[in-house]
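Entry type: protein chain
Record version: 2
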Amino acid sequence: MSPSRPRTFRTARWALAIAALTFGACGGDADDSAASLRVATTEMRFTPARLEMKASQDVRVIVDNRGDVDHTFSIDELDIHVKLNSGEREELTVNAAPASYEYVCRILDHAGLGMVGTLVVS
């Protein structure tokens, strides 16, 4: 590269080369990176209230309790029961057959107050 080219051009080329190496190294088999979903708990709600995933594959579900009180993420049909203290995060792996599953909070009457959601597996 000649000294007459602007310094920003050289910097930009280096940045592009580093980005190409970084993102190129992220390739691989589809099995290397499992699908993931996120759900947050707050007072009397799950966000989002509907999750969707493909059947018969491992999906990482990340549950964040952003509320001021304890909550659970429970899917009875899949025998999933996770309790989270305020501010906690849990990760779990879900693999399910095609169906719609209800997720609820089992703390006191949180479900009765609207803390429910649906996991749609297709």
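Comment: The longest helix spans residues 7-24.
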